[in-house]
Every structure is written in C-alpha cells, then in structure tokens.
Amino acid sequence: MATTFKPRNVLLFGATGNIGIYILDAILAVREEFDRIVIFTSQTTATLKKNLLDELRRTKKVEVIVGDLQDEDAVRKAYDGIDTIISALGRGAITLQIPLIRLADASPTVKWFLPSEYGTDIKYSPASAQEKPHQQKLAVRAVLENDVSELAYTYVVTGPYADMYVHFASNPEVGGWDVKSKKATLLGTDGNGPVSLTTMKDVGTLVRATLEHPSVAFKRALRVNSFTTTPSQIHAEFERQTGGQPWTDVRYTSLSRLREVESEAWKTEKPDATGFTLRRIWTEGGTLYDQRDNTLIGEPPLQTLVDVVAEEIRQSS
Ligand SMILES: NC(=O)c1ccc[n+]([C@@H]2O[C@H](COP(=O)([O-])OP(=O)(O)OC[C@H]3O[C@@H](n4cnc5c(N)ncnc54)[C@H](OP(=O)(O)O)[C@@H]3O)[C@@H](O)[C@H]2O)c1
C-alpha cells in the first residue's frame, strides 16, 4: 500500500449510533477533505431518524443508503468507489462485520477498514484473551489479521468514555456522580487508582485524525485518550464546580466487591454484565500505558476533565 494514500470516499456503518454520530460529526467538520461521505443504514434507523438523515443529505451532501447489512449484494454495491470504511456498529452487530470485511477485501476500491472498537483494549494483556466482552471483537481482529489479503485496518482504542464513566449508573455500586443528589460512588478502595478516559466528542476527533495519518495507522492499534485521571480527582472537580462544598454521600466500591457484582451479573445473565466486567478491567488498571499514540496522529486538541464535569453538571440541571 502506497503511503500516499488519502481517504477520499468514506462509508460508515452505524453512523448515527451512540458513538457513530460523533465520528460522523468530526468527519463532516472537514467535509471538504472528502469527495463522498456515505452512510449505510437500516430501514429502522432510516425511519426513526428521517429528519437527521434528510438534513445530512441536504446540508452536507451525505449519501444515505438504506439496506440490510447482511444483504451481500447491497453491501457490494454500496462499496462501489469507496476507499475507506468506518464501522461504528453496536455490540449486537460486532460479528456481522466479518462478512463486511471479506466483501471489503474483495472490493477493487476499498483499501482501509476501521472496525468497531473505540473502547477497552481487547489485547491489553494475556488475560484479555479470556474476557467475555472481548470475544467478538477478537474474532473480528483475527479475520483482519489472518484472512484478508490487501485490506489495511486500524483499531482505534480509546478506553472508556469519560462522559459515560462520570454518569451515575443504574446500579450505584458501579460508580458515577449524581449531581442533583450530590451522591457519588468512586471505584476502587480509595478512589486513587488512575484510569484513562476519552470523551465521546474526542473519539470523533481521534478517528478523524487517524484518517489524516494513514501511513502510521495502517495494520495496528492506536491507543489514544483524552486524559488520565483518578476517581478522587474527578470527585474533587465535581465538588469544585458545584460550589466547593464536600458532597455528603460518597461511597467506594472496592475491586473485590466489583468482582462479586460482575460474577453475579454473569451468573444471572443480566444484560449489564458486560458493563460490570469492563468497569472491573478499568479499575484493575487495564486502561493505562506509559505512552499514548495521540502524537502519531498529530496530537489533535482534545477535551479535559473540566469540560466533562461541566457538561455532566449542565445536563443534570
Ligand atoms: N468505550 C466505551 O465506554 C464504549 C461505550 C459504548 C460503546 N462502545 C463501543 O462503541 C462501538 C459502537 O457502540 P455504540 O454504543 O455506539 O452502538 P449502538 O449505538 O448501540 O449501535 C450503533 C449502530 O449499529 C447498528 N446496529 C446496532 N445493533 C445492531 C444489530 N443487532 N444488528 C444490526 N445493526 C445494529 C445500528 O445502525 P444502523 O441502524 O444505522 O445500521 C446502530 O445505530 C462498539 O464497538 C462499542 O463496544 C464503547
């Protein structure tokens, strides 16, 4: 692959999902850098998000293809003239990417595939191979690394989303800050264990920066983040931005308790078991590195802890 490659014709799967919309926004902010921006979306989304899709067509010249991503003929046709594919498909659709990757490899125009990652590093350590939530993404990586001939790939590994990390979870034991009630649960025995976070807006920025640096991004994971902090530092920032008084209801969930909650959730097949496992991994330090790859992709300007806390307070009021 020539290093002079620049993506000009991009197709997105899952473009209006939780994280896809941030990736799409970041790309559309530099619309002139691309010839074609194409969204492949389901009939359900086309109906539910009709106004948004109409607006994207009208104001940003986004091409919207409505179809079933399991319809190989429809996907093959959608790939015509596309050089780069960004998938932001949700957890329920991770393995559906495998046929999409094989079709991309067979396409005469598609050169680069970014599978749906944007989260916890699924190859952080040897133990990562056993983690239940990682299995489907690992299977996707195996296809990209072993079964395709020409296709380049990049895994954009961002760690947990700061916006979601600070939000008070439905199960208060798994962490978060409840601004209205001034209640918080900090993960870890003392809240001083570091955790690396990326805001959802920054996921978009970092994917766009990845597209701008294909020569360093091909055939590897890029481990990026917005900032590294601790639950105690997040808590101090919430207190600072809510008047400077200590919050009265502050609890801690130790790693051993987090493991119990996680194990119970898997035993009883609760849908939030995946989330509990990920929070346990983050609390164990599974988001931390000596160095980040932000510099490789031009060190784009990113958000800070102050921004994240301010936004959470704004949304709670
Ligand atoms: N780091 C973190 O803290 C964190 C948090 C959440 C998610 N993530 C990661 O981000 C990626 C995207 O997740 P998300 O929450 O943004 O996804 P999502 O909003 O649940 O889904 C994104 C899109 O995928 C398509 N889709 C979803 N489920 C599908 C199914 N079962 N079959 C077919 N299509 C389906 C839909 O698009 P169309 O209808 O347009 O086809 C949907 O809008 C995942 O890899 C996830 O693990 C990371």
CATH superfamily of the largest domain: NAD(P)-binding Rossmann-like Domain
Q: Would you identify the regions where 5 or more consecutive residues have pLDDT less than 50?
A: none
What is the tally of beta strands? 12
| β-sheet strand percentage | 15-25%
Q: Return the CATH class of the largest domain.
A: Alpha Beta
Bound molecules: NADP nicotinamide-adenine-dinucleotide phosphate
Shape, principal axes of CA atoms = globular
What average pLDDT do the residues reach?
Answer: 96
Looking across the biggest beta sheet, what order are the strands in?
3-2-1-4-5-6-10
Summing up helix and strand content along with how strands pair, one would put the structural category as alpha/beta
Distance between the termini: 51 Å
Number of helices: 13
C-alpha-based Rg, rounded: 20 Å
The fold-level CATH name of the largest domain is Rossmann fold
Order of helices and strands: EHEHHEHEHEHEHEEEHHEEHEHHH
Q: Which architecture of the largest domain does the CATH hierarchy give at level 2?
A: 3-Layer(aba) Sandwich
| Structural domain tally | 2
- Largest sheet features: 7 strands, parallel
Helix content: 25-40%
Structure explained in plain terms:
This protein has helices spanning 20-28, 43-48, 50-60, 72-78, 97-106, 135-146, 162-166, 200-211, 214-217, 231-241, 255-267, 273-283, 305-316, and strands at 9-13, 36-41, 62-66, 84-87, 112-114, 152-157, 176-178, 183-187, 195-197, 220-223, 227-229, 249-253. It has 317 residues and is of the alpha/beta class. It folds into two domains: 9-158 and 199-225 and 288-300, 3-Layer(aba) Sandwich (Rossmann fold), CATH 3.40.50.720; 162-195 and 229-286, no CATH class. A seven-stranded parallel β-sheet has the order 3-2-1-4-5-6-10, sandwiched between helices. A three-stranded mixed β-sheet has the order 7-8-12. The protein has a two-stranded antiparallel sheet with strand order 9-11. The chain is globular. The structure holds NADP nicotinamide-adenine-dinucleotide phosphate. NADP nicotinamide-adenine-dinucleotide phosphate is lined by residues 14, 16-20, 41-42, 44-45, 88-93, 96, 116-119, 158, 160-161, 164. Residues 14, 16-20, 41-42, 44-45, 88-93, 96, 116-119, 158, 160-161, 164 line the site of NADP nicotinamide-adenine-dinucleotide phosphate (NAP).
